Amino acid sequence: MSTQRKADFVDEQLSEDTVHNYLKQNPDFFERHSSLLGALRLPHVTGGTVSLVERQVSVLRQKDLKLERRLKELLEVARANDVLATKLHQLTLQLMAASSLAETLKALETALRTGFNADQSILVLFGEPDSFADIHTGRFFKVIERNDPALKPFDTFLGNHNPRCGQVRDVQRDFLFGQYANEVGSAALVPLGKKSEIGFLAIGSVDSNRFHPGMSMDFLKRLGQLVAEALRRY
After folding, report:
1. 86-103 pLDDT tens trace
2. Which CATH class is domain 98-232?
3. Any idea of the CA torsion for 56, 57, 60, 66, to the nearest 10 degrees?
4. What is the spatial distance between Cα 13 and Cα 4, in angstroms, rounded to a whole number?
């Protein structure tokens, strides 16, 4: 009688979770009890039947496909980062070779336009505009006093250390890109120095999804640090 009661107790305690955990802890169970495989069947999605081994193979194949897609995505990101790193290195060499502010600005504007495919870009430098009257780089270079009321729409950004990406307000786009503001779907604002102490770089794209808040900021941070150090020489 005691034996029967023990069996009943075990049956009551045995659950699907118990079986699941046991098989998980003993993945070689069916290797040691191969005769059970002939009796086990699982419904197939098409209405037929497959063995447990076949089902397991199917699951593993699905996992392999997911891992393969994930690996492909990681490789694509790695290649893109490698390209950016190479371009950033080239820009570093170009800025080091520049012997004047005008040459520095020209090297930066060219790199952004041809190397980094910027549709629009502008470097905003804080200072006295008359002190840079001899610098002619078109609309890429804008000098303005830090306390100028025109910078009021940028207060939140200027009080931060990090780049900002996404869609910008109309008043900000108009200030930065002027007559080309309507062509800018998204933009990246990159501080130059802590809290943009030197100024900031604005990069615009016609693609509204190119710059977005969820993107990695590492490259933009490095770009900002590089440009800031290059400008400190002048």
Report:
1. 999 999 999 999 999 999
2. alpha beta
3. -130
4. 14
